[in-house]
Write a structure and sequence with these properties.
Elements: E1 8-11, E2 18-21, E3 27-31, H1 34-40, E4 45-50, E5 55-59, E6 63-65, E7 72-76, E8 83-88, E9 95-97, E10 112-114, E11 129-130, H2 140-150
Parallel strand pairs: 3-10, 10-11
Antiparallel strand pairs: 1-2, 2-5, 3-4, 4-9, 6-7, 7-8, 8-9
Length: 151
């Protein structure tokens, strides 16, 4: 694994919304939950967990999507409807950003995979750690530290 060359700039599919990453990811992941499968129209979604002060929307504005009523604040481009990032209400330590938004994606490999109890039978990732649900919050510091050592 490697860390991205910062700052990293990216856009939604249509280019109306631009984002910038100025701090390295805390960790990377693939989520196999059925919600992510449906929202991404794929076997899993991929994410880079980034510090909130290291990520910004630099042009345009996003709209809330997904179910829109749960603690997951999924943000989308209002024009092309690209799923761009997710804030989790009550979790201030990171924002989940879709790494495929960025011009350079060569640094991205999922370090953990979550919700494997819901994964499609054929879906595999190169993740080092696998969780049937989400990792316990008290396990995150050790995972983040290990990710930093391997990046």
């Amino acid at each position: 694994m490697s860390q991205p060359q910062l700052p990293l700039k990216g856009t939604c599919r249509c280019g109306d919304v631009e984002v910038e990453l100025t701090a390295p990811p805390l960790m990377t992941a693939a989520c196999h939950c059925t919600g992510c499968q449906k929202m991404s129209a794929s076997a899993f979604s991929i994410t880079a967990m980034v510090p909130p002060d290291g990520f910004a929307v630099t042009r345009g504005a996003t709209v809330r999507g997904g179910i829109g009523e749960d603690p997951l604040d999924h943000r989308f481009c209002p024009r092309c409807m690209s799923w761009m990032f997710t804030r989790i209400e009550g979790v201030d330590a990171f924002i989940n950003v879709r790494p495929t938004l960025f011009e350079d994606t060569s640094w991205f490999t999922p370090f953990i995979e979550t919700m494997t109890q819901e994964k499609l039978a054929w879906a595999t990732t190169p993740a080092r750690h696998s969780f049937t649900g989400f990792p316990p919050m008290d396990a995150l510091p050790a995972l983040i530290a290990e990710f930093a050592e391997t990046a």
